[in-house]
Specification:
The structure is a homodimer.
Chain A: E1 4-6, E2 11-14, H1 22-25, E3 31-35, H2 40-43, H3 46-53, E4 58-62, H4 71-83, E5 88-93, H5 95-108, H6 117-120, E6 134-138, E7 150-155, E8 158-163, E9 171-174, H7 184-200, H8 210-232, H9 237-250, H10 264-276, H11 280-294, H12 300-310, H13 318-335, H14 352-361, H15 375-384
Parallel strand pairs in A: 2-9, 3-4, 3-5, 5-6, 6-9
Antiparallel strand pairs in A: 7-8
Chain lengths: 386, 386
């Protein structure tokens, strides 16, 4: 096991009917900026319940944070935070809203030239050492952003990672019933996103992180058990609660502590979203099976472990285990309604050059747990994913 | 799944050769009280390294915190904290030292009559709302005290639980190499203690906590894999690192969130330690298999799940699964050198009346996940454990 630090101070309030507790979580005298996305939290009444719970506090609302939140949108909220002397940021929405609010917080507390520095030069992020207290009410189980200190922001046609310990939410409320109204495709994307967060911290090379491995396998087994069920029966509380808690646990630092991680599927997938507007979860479902096919020798031992423990494939030789495990993974994504080939989304092979150029422009030329996934290999992965 | 809150702000610094980082973890101008136990941290040089790392800070040392730490010992340190205007408490030792330091912190910040109130009347504990910052350097993997806000203190021949959110350590350093010098029996006790912390949050009744169940099973499987190995080969880093991390994860709130818990084995075991001085881990190994035998109908579904997933017992009927799983659990403890019957420790059946009286005197008359484990049932468990 490698040396590691683990720190996660976010308080989780999990379960049904807990919005009323906001009153005790947000300071009584705070001036609160509530931030949300496309309006479904308004439509389904969540925003009203949130405001009601924050009785007697001065509240300003800022809506319209889009999926893959854009710098240009977020920067408008930064002005509000500064001009209105906001004391508390409350994100109500999915990962994009929470990621966006984290950037707003970072930018509002940045003392340098322009907030765009924070995206164009990632070393600028560490200069921010204070932040406003921030709470979240998550309405889409997927990104884990409600219990970590990172986010992804769209800027100049690229997706940029922000990460800073001051960005941990002070609290996050996870009420699975708030996700009942989600479209099936978004839930399916969430299952896939969670699944891939896990395997990116697990299917690397063995290094004796037994707790981490078993916990990762536990999340994967749970997703396989409840994935289809929670898409087909959105109001099955226990299935949705298990998806919600697994998605939080998948990316809060727990299973990645002390073990190698390989974020190449996310990095290549981000380019597909930035370039073609494909949903984040869908891009991951395209890249992962293909990446494993191309990198199966590098990941051999862990792919065998994954085959045995997650898919219960035991009575064949090791090569067959790997092939079957990759096929089962692809079938699982497809069974949820998420297609796994580029051509399914209308991307033709002549676009691969552009994708490789984008990876190079963003400095993503040495990806993976061993830093040897070059643009040449990314090209093979993309060709294989057609 | 039940509603729950999860909050754990302790920063973990895990791995080899990290004592030097204390300098950046403890404020430069702090007056530090270093607390330890019987002197092995002195003998093996850990204390010297800790002091060296805290260069230029004023340091006072307080040794002699015994296993099952006593009120009378701890209260002496409370006087030092107050009279010397201590700013930071640093515990160096096992669970008893850390539990003791938590009580010292609680007592030093208690405004009521006498610190003994905190043990005789558990409602007094909640009156403490501030505490000194506290760090720990753990030298015995077992109790999980390094990453939770609870402890157990011996007072007037009873063991008393303290619990307060202000008692989370600010940081805990977990260096598995610091445990290499432990006697084998203490490591064995640690494996058993960790194992039983897990099953007390897992072998109850089903309630759809799939992440929690799988994570609990992962810790149990790991302990079975590395338990004997880490006792026999104390300097096998990876085995000891896995034991260390599992013991922290077993009792930091993670696997018990949203699921029923049954602490009766600990509660009955505490009386055996208080009355006969038997090691904590040993008392648990005596009580657990017997408790399961007596309560196997109540715990039927989870015992079957435990048999299948942890011990891989599949090809027999359900009753046989349960019997075999209990037998395998007992055999596992015995294989580590921990005896599982009261008579092995010289306790005769005429003492059972006294144990039941102690349970009643301490109000432990409605134990278990369903609060229906009466003194009558405790008696059966003890008789069955002879």
């Amino acid at each position: 096991m490698e040396n590691f630090d683990f720190y996660n101070p976010t308080k989780i309030i999990f379960g049904k009917n807990r919005l009323g507790e906001l009153d005790s979580l947000v300071p009584k005298d705070a001036k609160v900026l509530i931030l949300y996305g496309g309006g479904s939290v308004k439509k389904y009444g969540t925003l009203k319940k949130v405001s009601d719970s924050l009785k007697n506090r001065e509240i300003i609302e800022f809506g319209g944070i889009e999926p893959n939140p854009k710098y240009e949108t977020l920067i408008k909220a930064v002005d509000i935070v500064k001009n209105e002397n906001i004391d508390f940021l409350l994100a109500v929405g999915g990962g994009s809203v929470i990621d966006g609010v984290k950037f707003i917080n970072l930018a509002a507390n940045y003392q340098g030239n322009s907030p765009s520095d924070l995206l164009s030069d990632s070393s600028a992020q560490a200069k921010v050492i204070t932040s406003l207290p921030m709470g979240t009410i998550i309405t889409l189980p997927a990104t884990g952003s409600e219990m970590n200190s990172g986010g992804v922001i769209t800027y100049q046609h690229g997706k940029h990672v922000i990460m800073n310990p001051v960005l941990f939410p002070q609290f996050s409320m996870i009420d699975p019933t708030l996700t009942y109204t989600l479209p099936a495709i978004q839930v399916a994307n969430g299952v896939v996103d969670t699944f891939i967060h896990v395997v990116e911290q697990y299917v690397t090379y063995p290094n004796e992180g037994r707790f981490q491995d078993r916990t990762a396998e536990g999340i994967l087994l749970t997703l396989i058990e409840i994935g289809k069920q929670t898409i087909n029966n959105p109001t099955d509380y226990d299935a949705r609660a298990n998806l919600s808690w697994c998605s939080t646990m998948a990316l809060n630092g727990l299973i990645g502590s002390g073990v190698p991680t390989d974020w190449s599927t996310h990095m290549i997938g981000h380019e597909l979203t930035a370039m073609f507007g494909i949903d984040h979860g869908q891009t991951l479902a395209i890249i992962l099976p293909s990446l494993w096919e191309i990198r199966k020798d590098k990941k051999r031992d862990k792919l065998i472990q994954y085959a045995e423990r997650v898919w219960n494939i035991n009575d064949v030789d090791d090569n067959a285990k790997i092939e079957m495990a990759i096929a089962k993974t692809r079938d699982f994504f497809e069974s949820l309604g998420i297609k796994t080939h580029m051509s399914d989304y209308g991307i033709t092979s002549d676009k691969i050059d552009n994708i490789i150029e984008a990876l190079e422009a963003h400095g993503l030329t040495a990806l993976s747990e061993t830093k040897d996934l070059t643009p040449e290999i990314s090209r093979k992965i993309l060709e294989n994913a057609m």
